[in-house]
Each structure stands twice: as C-alpha cells, then as structure tokens.
Amino acid sequence: MKRRYLLGAASASWLSGLRGGVAQASFPTQPIRFVVPFTPGGSNDVVARLIGEQLSPRWGQPFVVENRPGASGNIGAEAVARATPDGHTWLLGANQIFTTNPHLVRAAFDPLRDFSFVAMVARVPVVLVVHAALGARDVRELVALARQRPGSLTYPSTGVGSSQHLGVARLVGENATHVPYRGANALMPDLIAGRLQIYTGAVNSLLAHIRSGSVRALASMGTDRVPALPDVPTIGEAGFPDAQTQIWLSIAVPAAVPRPIVDQIHTNVAEVMQMSSTRLKLDEQGIEVAIQGPTELEATVRAEYARDGALIAKLGIRE
C-alpha cells in the first residue's frame, strides 16, 4: 500500500528571514518528493518526516513523503533512480538497498551506478531478542539450542538479505528457519505471540516489548551497548564479534543530479540533523544521528557492499 504525506511550507513573508544564505535561488523550485521504500511507522519514515518538517519552511517548498514498500526496498529505490535528475526526488534508504540487495535481487537499476549518495543521516541500534518462552538466556545458549534443534526455530525479517535476516543468519546459519515478511509491523504480532522465536530488529520497535517481558534481549548487535538497555551486552561481549549488524539510513538521489545540488542538500540536511531539537526527537525513538558526506558515504557503501557480498556467498543465501 502506498501512502503520501504532505508537509506544508511556511508563508513567503515569514520564510524570507529563514532562507537567506540557505538555498540557492535555482533550487528547489518545486515540492520535494521524499520516497521511503518501506511501510509507514518505521525508522526510515520517522527520519524522513522529521527532515521534511524542518526543511520545508527553510526552503519554501512542501515535502511529500511517499511510502513505496516492496522487494526489500527496491520498488521505492527504482522509482527514485528513474526520476528526473533535478534534485527534487529523494530516497531515504536503509543500507540493505545498496549493500545486500544487489547480491540477491535482480533489479532494473544498479545502486552503485544509478544513485548519487548525498548524506548518511542516522543509525538505528539493533538488538537480538528471543521470545520469552524460549529456553535461551544468552547468545551462546541460543546458538547451542539452534544446533540441537536444526530447523525448528524460526526467525522473521523484512525480506531476504535484510539486516534482520543477516543478523540472525550470522549467528545460526541454516540451523533456524527464516520467514520473510512485508515489514516490521507485520511480523511483530507473530513474534510477540511466540510463533517466531528469534529476531534482530531496531531497538525503537522492540523496547516496549522488552520492557513488558514479551521478548528477552540477549545482545546489542553493534559495537556499543544501547543506552536504554545498559545491562544487555554487545554481541562482541557475548562472544560473537563477527556477527555485528548495523542499520544506517541515508539520502540518495538520481545519479545525474548536479553536484552543487547534492552538496546543498547535504549541507542543509546535516544542519537539520545536528540541531538539538532533532537529536532529542530521534533519541526518543531510539535513533542516533550519524552524519557522513557524499564522498565518505560512497566509500562506506562500497566497503559494506563487498563485506555483505562475501557473507551472502558464504551462507548461500538466495532470494
């Protein structure tokens, strides 16, 4: 299902005091179409709306946030890759679109060729959880249980090759059964009900369920502990440093967008993301501000593309 959200622009009189030195006279000249290639309510959606709400009055143009889920994010990504390269169509993409999907999904675009990478904007801490009824109190017990009962444990994801899929697969390989869903909101009821046993997901979507006792947190999948879960070890502390999994969110535009526009978007988005009010709102959602510019982000994409490709080949994962 596709949804659009219009984030209104301020009046011209009020705006005149905000635009000085911020936007070039030639850009933007029309509303910004901000494509989120996942279902509404997730981390991508939250960040896209926040950016749109902040930039709309600065630029004097509305932002239309358009949810276009499907094909592990590729449907929305393709819409942006094929858009007019004038800087008015953006993708708020998770790293899987650029670094894992190309190894798994045949697409009508090449993420390394058909996009200009504008800015990394955020990271979403990932937590490994199990259903409360599962007899695994730490990561080692979980891995051992999966080996003892190969195929009997199940874990969901938002698609083949997603961070949720690879996060568990790095730990248990083929000893547990992967069950793909169309989105995080769709899988959560089955996880809470115990029809699924293992999950690696964004902390902002899991924290309430961890606190209620429906699921048990075993590890933070990043290099640092999650501030909201200070007693939960990192996956490295739990003895599995090679299983680190991260979700990062970035803005990309069609490859032929002129570099001055790419640089302007990065500069203005970075300013918005570094505002204390932005950080506070994202902290409440369990999302961390993380800024990279076009050159650094492209290097990050290419390095992770190679790492994920090697893992997918090793595990024999297929779409």
UniProtKB/TrEMBL annotation:
It comes from the Bacteria. The keyword Signal applies. Residues 1-25 form the signal peptide. Keywords: Signal. Belongs to the UPF0065 (bug) family. This is Bug family tripartite tricarboxylate transporter substrate binding protein. The lineage of its organism: Bacteria, Pseudomonadati, Pseudomonadota, Alphaproteobacteria, Acetobacterales.
